[in-house]
Amino acid sequence: xxxxxxxxxxxxxxxxxxAARALRSTGFHGIGVxxxxxxxxxxxxxxxxxxxxxxxxxxxALEHAGEDSRARLHKSMAAGESKGHSRLRALVDNYLSxxxxxxxxxxxxxxxxxxxMPRQADAVRDAAAARVRSLIALVESVLPADAPAGTAAIxxxxxxxxxxxxxxxxxxxxxxxxxxxxxxFLLERFExxxxxxx
Length: 198
Fold this sequence. Notes:
Layout: H1 7-26, H2 33-39, H3 54-82, H4 87-95, H5 98-102, H6 109-113, H7 122-142, H8 151-169, H9 173-190
């Protein structure tokens, strides 16, 4: 049986969770150490007992945001599959959903932060690249087996870009129409037809 996490670990986890939500909501430049500690209900002075630097926090928060987003997406995909949808449809419908459009703070960090990632420190860029690779791997796992090499990266790019454009248009009818069109395009192009009677 695993031991209960220590008080220090629980505090560390609270800081990371707070930073992960703020990171997706406001971007890298919206995260200050003092603000994160205050939002976590802690004093600024305690930060360095948990992290060597702000970049160390950002890298860990990015990893946490990715794991959290992936867990939510897998849960939503399982619900779609239980309704008879293909794995690809379950992914596309959930990634390009109105819910994801409206809630960047709990969604995919790649879509929330892609344009900012190249300007970050090495550790943060490495964590970001790992998130991108994870998304591509997920897409690859739901594509038809005969999909040409490189298709997963292209579909992942379309998912991320479509969500970003929809968010720029706004959480409104125009943004939702854009998502609907992107869902239709991706499924018409990449979903294998199901055999008759299924």
